């Protein structure tokens, strides 16, 4: 086998040596040289070397040399496969484990980014569903005054889930998001029950309760508007606040203010009212009051120019605290010593059904 390898690797050199050294080997009769075993039995491996001195015969560099193996069969030397890279398949940077190097990292980073975006979208979708579910639940309860036990339990379930997914756990550090006008949607505050009870009377209705927060001056203004068939009334309470923690503020009320009533130019009575469970038709009363509309319009013009009536708020009830448990661009949930408050930003789509 060693001899075979020698001839295989240096066939050209050996061919020339054999030709130039007739004393070592018999002169060949043809253009081929043979190295045969003298004893045909047992048959030993043989090796034939082909050489040519002709100029038109391809040299070893032109074509591979034919070799006869130890079994007497002609074989061609094994050629190493040429490395050919397809233009359509660019080279990949593979590591020792057979995986792509930089490419895997790049794909991994892209997948992580896409996964993060998908998670954020899923969270936003969940928050949107919870907010809409809460607003739909409190709709028609008159700020929670007419909410039954089942509705209140459902409201608390929505509130708990929103508080657990609060996107701004430190709302007082994001004063720009806290700033603005907020409209009350629901409350479980016992202090507001007397005010909300006004809406249960036949001719009065609580139209709107708002809270304006000015983070530049650290002030709060709570306003309420009550309407009747004859006029609408507005009153407010102003307060200052201090930030005590990332989610808590201390509130101190200063004074109350009563705006002059806005007398309506026409008396607009409802068609019927509910008095102790009985429906009372007011069409006849509306016809009786129609001649008084001109007088009512004159009173309205006189009163509208009067300044608001301001009164100080005495007593220990001037101080209160408020913890903001949920805050985003459209919804705010707060808990205070007076109870639970759910508010939507004025102009938000949550206010429209």
How do the helices and strands follow one another from N- to C-terminus? HHEEEEHHHEHEEEEEEEHHEEEE
DSSP strand (E) fraction? 25-35%
* Termini Cα gap: 94 Å
- Major sheet: arrangement of strands: 5-6-7-8-9-14-15-16
Secondary-structure map with pairings?
Layout: H1 2-9, H2 11-20, E1 32-35, E2 47-50, E3 67-68, E4 74-75, H3 102-138, H4 149-164, H5 175-178, E5 180-187, H6 193-197, E6 205-214, E7 219-227, E8 231-243, E9 248-258, E10 262-263, E11 272-275, E12 278-281, H7 283-289, H8 293-303, E13 309-312, E14 319-327, E15 331-336, E16 339-345
Antiparallel strand pairs: 1-2, 3-4, 5-6, 5-16, 6-7, 7-8, 8-9, 8-10, 9-13, 9-14, 11-12, 14-15, 15-16
Helix pairs in contact: 3-4
Biased composition (Low complexity): 26-56
Family: Belongs to the PAP/fibrillin family.
Region (Disordered): 21-106
Describe this entry's structure for a reader:
The strands form four sheets. Strands 5-6-7-8-9-14-15-16 form an eight-stranded antiparallel β-barrel. A two-stranded antiparallel sheet has the order 1-2. It has a two-stranded antiparallel ribbon with strand order 3-4. It folds into two domains: 74 residues, no CATH class; 179 residues, Beta Barrel (Lipocalin). The N terminus is likely disordered. The protein has 353 residues and is of the alpha+beta class. The chain is built from eight helices and 16 strands. One of its GO terms (cellular component) is plastid. InterPro entries: PAP, PAP/fibrillin_dom. Keywords: Plastid, Transit peptide. It is found in: Plastid.
